[in-house]
Amino acid sequence: MIGATQGTCKYNGKNPLNTDAAYRLTYVGGVTASATGLAFNGTNGYTDTFWNPNTNLPTTSGHISININTITGTGGWLGVNTGGPPDRFYIGNAGAFNSINSNAEQSYPGTAAGFSVMTRTGTTNVQIYNDGVYNSYADASTSNPSLNAVIGGRNNNGTASNFTNFTINWTSFGQGLNQTEAEALRTIVGAYNTALSR
Predict the structure, then answer these.
(1) What is the rounded CA–CA span in Å between residue 84 and residue 86?
(2) Which residues of the chain have pLDDT under 70?
(3) Which of 118, 96, 99, 116 is nearest to 107 (CA)?
(4) Fold (topology level) of 6-195
(5) Cis amide prior to 16 (ω within 30 degrees)
(6) What are the extents of the domains in the chain?
(7) Edge to edge, what strands does the sheet with 125-130 contain?
(8) What is the pLDDT of residues 110-152, one digit of tens each?
(9) Parallel, antiparallel, or unpaired: how do β-strands 76-81 and 98-100 relate?
């Protein structure tokens, strides 16, 4: 999320086109942009990413990463589920609110501030990292939700919910990352935000 406006922050850095197919963000409700990222109002603000786990990932590999600049309260950060288990693909900080292609929800390690990633690298291998602190879980893979993921809450079976009032300046979805890859991504995101004076 580069720049200080909704117009500049909406682009997918991997494919910066202003189309749904390129996964550019569409804003809904209370979302404001500044040099530190996107701030969500905690009541109705979120972005649609147009990114669907079911069409983009196998059930045994996937990750969600996020960098949070400011924390206020709790809530879901980003992701999607189709009516609860088993189709869950989201990460948040409200207790055990973290799941990736699984029936299970897991607790969050670390402080929640800074860089976090939840990743699946096999049929039972799941990890959650927060700035170098990580937990591992043996969660059996089930299926991917077939709806768009959102940022600033979660897409709960087609309806946005669990809104957050955090300021977020980085997110990614993609293939599963091992611990070395997750740490490398943390370093890259840290350098990126430092270069942007965040």
Answers:
(1) 6
(2) 74-76, 84, 94-96, 110-112
(3) 96
(4) Jelly Rolls (2.60.120)
(5) no
(6) 6-195
(7) 31-34, 37-40, 167-174, 62-70, 114-120, 125-130, 133-138
(8) 666 789 999 999 999 999 988 778 889 999 999 899 999 999 9
(9) unpaired
